[in-house]
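Handoff note, outgoing to incoming analyst
You'll be picking up this chain. Sequence as last confirmed:
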Amino acid sequence: MRVDILASGSGGNCIAIRSNETTILVDVGIAKTKIEKKLLEVGIRPNHIAAIFITHAHSDHIKGLPLANKYKIPVYAAVQEWKSINGVDEDLQGIKRPGKFMDINGFLVGAFRTHHDAYEPLGYTVQTEEGKKVSICLDTGQVDTEILAAMRDSDIYIIEANHEPKMVQASDYPTSVKTRILSHIGHLSNQQTAEALTTLIQGRKEKIYLTHLSSKNNMSTLAEMTVMRALMKKGLRKDKDFEIEVV
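Most recent structure output, in case you need it:
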């Protein structure tokens, strides 16, 4: 299994997952032409994508959906999220239900509910026939027991570490925006992400990707050190027990 994070953050999100001859995308939040370029840069032909899975219908996750019509790629999203998705040909529209698994050319794709200010946001798990597993948990204001149960035993964790709360409070954002970010349907702080990973990481050389960092309210070194400190308290060491990369 190979993961390529083509875009991450408020400017757009797009993740490519491939194994053998199968490639799927999770979110397409940058322009179609940019996705095409980035796919080719990592050796993926756009017309070889088997499916697109959408976490939720905010623009930084669906901007590039014209890619689907151009290459006739099926698009899957939760039932309620289709209320906010336009322009996808009807025959390409699919429903992804949390708790149900779907076989996409050898990929077993599952979904779990997240907590964000969208109609029905989802996170995803993807497993290969060889048993490798990747979990994707992007925009969510909290990590509950159902999320942890779904993500458990992954080889790769892609999870947001959006902000440092003190930086949000000190920012020039309007109070309403600060409240949204810090709410239970906003985004994960570095500490929330660290706590989740402390539960999930077992020291099997799992790979962690910290994503969706705020450009104004976080720093890559701060996000990484917060997670590493939490895992060190559990007796786990970077590069020996786990790998970590900030995107």
